[in-house]
C-alpha cells in the first residue's frame, strides 16, 4: 500500500487528478484501513473539489470512524460548500452521532442534495439520540425553520417525537 500512496502523492503534485482519483478509489475498494490517515491528509489539504469528493467516498468505503471528525470539520468550512453532499454521504455508515447538531442544521442548506443527505443521516439516528441531543436538535431545527420554510424541518421535528 505504501507504493500506491507514493504514486498518489506524485500524481497530485503533478496535477494529474484523474489518475490520482482512480488510485484513491482503489484504496477505498480495498477497504485499506492503513490508508485512512493518508486519505484524511488529502481531504484536508487538497483544493480540488473532485479529488476531495473521491477521498470522501474512499473513506466511506473503508468505513473507519477516524474519518468522522475531519469530515465534519470539512462540512463546517464555507470554502468547501460544494462538497457538502458528498461529505455527508461519506459519514453514512460511520459513528457520527456526536456531531448530529452540526448535521441537523444542514437540513436548511440551500442545496437539495445537502438537505436530503443531512435529513437521511438525522433520520437514521434520531431514535438513538440522548434526550439532551434531541433537545439541542429540536432547538436548532426550530431556529432554522424560523429562517427558511422547509418541509423537512417538520419531518425532522416529527422524528424527535417518536
What does this structure look like?
- There is one protein chain.
- This protein is an all-alpha fold.
- The chain is 69% helix and 0% strand.
- It is built from ten helices and no strands.
- It has helices spanning 2-13, 17-29, 36-45, 49-62, 68-75, 84-90, 100-105, 112-125, 131-147, 151-161.
- It is elongated and about 50 Å long.
- The model has no long low-confidence stretch (mean pLDDT 93).
Describe the secondary-structure layout.
Elements: H1 2-13, H2 17-29, H3 36-45, H4 49-62, H5 68-75, H6 84-90, H7 100-105, H8 112-125, H9 131-147, H10 151-161
Helix pairs in contact: 1-2, 2-4, 3-4, 4-6, 5-6, 6-8, 9-10
Short description:
The protein is mainly α and 162 residues long.
For this entry, what is the oligomeric state of its chains?
A: single chain
Give the number of helices: 10
Which strand-content bin applies to the residues? Answer: under 5%
Q: Can you count the beta strands?
A: 0
Outline, from the CA principal axes?
elongated
The SSE order reads HHHHHHHHHH
Low-confidence stretches: none
Helix content class: 55-70%
Q: Kindly, what is the distance between the CA atoms of the first and last residues, rounded to a whole number of angstroms?
A: 46 Å
The secondary-structure class comes to mainly alpha
From the alpha carbons, calculate the radius of gyration and give it in angstroms: 17 Å
> What does the main sheet amount to?
none
Instruction: Tell me, rounded to a whole number, the average pLDDT.
Output: 93
